[in-house]
Fold each of these.
Amino acid sequence: MQRAALTATGVYTAPYVISNEELVAAYNEYARNFNADNAARIVAGELAACPDSSVDFIEKASGITRRYVMDKAGVLDPQRMRPRFAARRNEELSLQAEMAVAAGGEALAAAGRTGAEVDAVICAASNMQRAYPAMAVEIQQALGVERGYAFDMNVACSSATFALDIAVNAVRCGTARTVLVVNPEICSAHLAWKDRDCHFIFGDVCTAIVVERLDAARSAHAWEVLGSKLATSFSNNIRNNAGFLSRCEDRDPDDRDQLFVQEGRRVFKEVCPMAAEHMTQHLASLGFTPLQVRRFWLHQANLAMNQLIGRRLLGREATADEAPVILDEFANTASAGSIIAFHRHNTDLASGDLGLLCSFGAGYSIGSLALRKC
Ligand code: CO8
């Protein structure tokens, strides 16, 4: 059995920023228009009025101050309230592939590798822009990966950690020497921007991670993977019903259940204890306690969620150095969040330091990797 390591990462940041102030101004204009257009039905009790959103609520409830998106004008147009993307011809690089090639190229360069040295590409994200051919195969070709295999997978917010588990096992078993995992998350395309309960939650980004044999690593910042642990438990509390059967069910793509829907409070209450218990058990199985972990790179959905998980793990508040936060800047970027935190906050640690990367989200799904700095 080979020893496997995460040797490098890359991040593609979406080109536009939307502040909470801009978001709330656009949403409130949409709400005013909706209420004026539907005044008679609202008075008759046939329709609920659209309540205003507020910057204060968003910052207090989530810790999010802004987000990066692939299109800003469409999202902030009160007549549209969703991104606008130009359709591309089949001969052009797809949007998700473009993001993945940028992040993947950065990660490969940081690992001291070229596409020609990669054996497998896994494209893991909450949404794929098409059913087939797999996004990963297009990315494989665009990055000059001439051998091996590529495939897509989706475990919602845990897509990246579940993909890392597969990549690590492939390297350990000798199926591959070098695997590239990419996570192009275009959350803005599946977010209900007209729903004030969730319109602030998501942003767009793409992350990439190189997984290699430890003995072949060239990077100065490699992390050996000591172990990984995956868990799932079915829940309807985070759900999106859009799929290939939608047109056969005569569904409108704007129907509320064809977009992201969640019971946010229930998710909060149920997922926090599950995630803390999962990480504690994972560490115990490797002979460690949470207090021995130098840094936690947690899923980035909600600041209060991460603070509560930190308290459950450590018995006290985790410092920003112990559990860095990036969701204030990026919002929730589904499976990419913990990887952005890792990308931004791993090179300062010392050889021998212990770290834990953990995602949690829809499914429910939880994935963790215990890492030791080489
Ligand atoms: N402005 C003003 N008031 C508001 C707003 C707003 N924007 N939104 C809600 N309110 C009001 C509510 O109506 C409510 O009013 P009332 O008390 O009168 O009923 C009050 O504020 C409190 O509302 P909530 O109870 O909803 O507020 P919370 O404190 O629970 O905060 C959160 C809401 C932030 C959503 C919080 O519950 C949370 O973060 N929960 C966890 C969310 C989470 O982690 N979800 C994970 C989902 S991500 C995932 O798994 C990936 C899925 C795939 C991605 C797909 C891409 C789109």
Note: The mean pLDDT is 97.
Amino acid sequence: MQNLSDVLASSSTPEKLKAVLTVTTETCIAISDALKQGSLAGILGMAGNENVQGEEQKKLDVISNDMLKDALFACPAVRAIASEEEDYIVPANTDGEYFIAFDPLDGSSNIDINAMVGTIFSIYHQTGNSPAVEADFLIPGKEQVAAGYVLYGPSTMLVLTTGNGVNMFTYDPTKQIFTLTNENIQVPEETQEFAINMSNQRFWSDSIQSYINELIKGKDGSRDKDFNMRWVAAMVGDVHRILCRGGIFLYPWDNKDPAKPGKLRLMYEANPMAMLLEQAGGKAHTHTQRILDIQPEAIHQRVAVVLGAANEVDKCLSY
Ligand code: AFP
């Protein structure tokens, strides 16, 4: 069976991008090992401070962020780093050629209940002859050269695209490598499974409320088929399910907190997941536009997200 370096070699991935991907995935294996120890390592629970999002940081948020930041900082190919857990971008090597934005531990509210979490990453190619600044990073998602995630579930899996389709790899602890287990993932255009946090319903727009109400009515409503619902509360887990068996995922705008009309972040959640979905034949939009077309205005910018089965995303946006 092929492993990650075989696939990268055969897809003529540039050497320096290969180096960034190798450092990222090897660090994720170390994060996976730390997670597997759980409370035995005394690393669950709160870190006792807040991140730029105003969210309580868990110890493993900080630990995984520092592991990735240190490893990538030392990689000569990395020009700058952005992270959910870093207030500002971190310039690395001025003559590096790649930006990497990541959510070091997406779904961290799941850690203490031993539920799925993951690391999401987004990579751009850019050079410059002075240390990178935030403005350099504000590049639309369609310019990404690679995107993916490592899912820490019953098995540790890497899902990756470098612009030529989506491949899934399973970590083999006996050989300590990622082995190719699913090639060229395709998301079915239709689905009968949706993912949304229903507790926010009263805060959604009327159009989202009517769209979701029709899914719930199933055969008794206009959709003429019944739907199932799932909510992992970790985008990485919901997206993985959609890549494996189809579905639609929504985190719409809501008026619960005027300061935070949406929850998901563009640069290191929506953009990488949007690239994966489109490479797998799916769609990823806000209410008004294709996510990969958005011109970012800030590194921690939030967006509404509707992604998954192409025809179901179209149906949702038609409301
Ligand atoms: P945390 O990383 O703070 O747990 O947030 C995870 C997340 O950003 C995304 O991965 C989930 O889809 C979404 O938030 C879950 O949001 P709710 O907690 O509102 O369900």
Note: DSSP finds eight helices and 15 strands in the chain.
Amino acid sequence: MAARIIDGKTLAAQVKARVRDGVEDCKRQGVEPCLAVLLVGDDPASAVYVRGKARDCEECGIRSLVERLPADTTQEALLVRLAQLAADDSVHGILVQLPLPAHIDERAVIKAIPPEKDVDGFTPVNVGRMMIGETCFLPCTPAGCMEMLDAAGVDPAGKRAVVIGRSNIVGKPAAMLLLARNATVTICHSRTKNLAKICAEADILVAAVGRPKFVTVDMIKPGAAVIDVGINRDENGKLCGDVDFAAAAEKAGCITPVPGGVGLMTRAMLMVNTLQAARNTL
Ligand code: NAD
């Protein structure tokens, strides 16, 4: 039987509509939510992402400040600008588009974002709060994955969940959020042995590897919920995820497509976090 498709486009539109209402409410109370996005250098993919974020802000009624800094911006200059944005009460969310040019220490830059404006959920304080289940800004991609599971009616409690990938921005936090919802979680990575077998036992499979069609149909348990985080190009240059979608959709219970899946929810969750950051100042 064919899997249900978890449609990121519809879901993201619903989330953004809710944010729009919340933004209106915030404005009525005298606060205009504002997101500052810093882009250093001219990486074309990053430029596309930043444009998308500005469009989302516009759609939600959030003011966006996009600042493009030259590739040779020094770390010191970037930290100075971040300190100004940190001190600016009219700015609620601050996001530094990654990756940064090689001469800049990404961690030092992330640490310079005040936790209350860290709408990406990347600062050590927010990561720590997430670990111990305190209120915090959740990283947008894993938070989007959880929304998609909820929308599909998949309750992680008691289920076997497998996350492939252990990055700080996707794999690790995705595993943590599944654990917080009482799944039994396994994290697989590049050194994992018997990966296919482990995946085939998963009721919930989250793929965040970055390799086209890495997850083949034999790695999917019949009826599993499959969340495909990957954004790759296939051999024909077409956008695709980490999962061999056509085959997987015949076996899974529900599955997210690429494009039209987690990527759109990631963007929507950034809007949720920015609204929350503004609300927190009311
Ligand atoms: P990353 O490169 O930081 O991490 C990839 C992970 O995959 C690593 O932890 C590594 O251990 C694991 N891995 C690599 N090869 C493996 C193998 N052969 N077997 C098992 N595990 C292996 O990447 P990331 O930032 O976590 O992103 C992962 C993918 O998700 C990429 O395609 C990226 O473009 C995409 N992504 C999508 C969104 C979105 O909004 N949809 C957001 C962030 C990242």
Note: The chain has a mean pLDDT of 97.
